[in-house]
Fold:
Amino acid sequence: MEILDIVRKITGDTENDDMFSVFIDIVIQRVLNFCNIRELPDELRYTVALMVKDIYEEELTKKQLLSGEAVNSVSEDGRSVSFSSKLITDVRASADERIEKTRDLKRFKSLYRV
Structure:
């Protein structure tokens, strides 16, 4: 399965292929540089796809924050302010996933040392 197909499946988005292609190219280049390799091993396709998904979700979150969609409620006179806790949970989960992906990349980095 191609990386673009994997990204489509895990994001559920089939309409942003151009954006996904750019993100895929960026992530592949970062992975190649990090691991000091010239070609992407098949074993890292899913790692790249998950990293692309993270970038995509970060872009969606930025758009939500800029458009005001992420704010749940604000009151004036009663001074009640409530915000989405989902965003904080997503950020923490994303950080944990990044650490795990970095571990995967470090394994390949040491595997391909010359």
About this structure: Residues 3-111 form one domain. The helical segments are 3-11, 17-35, 45-67, 86-111.
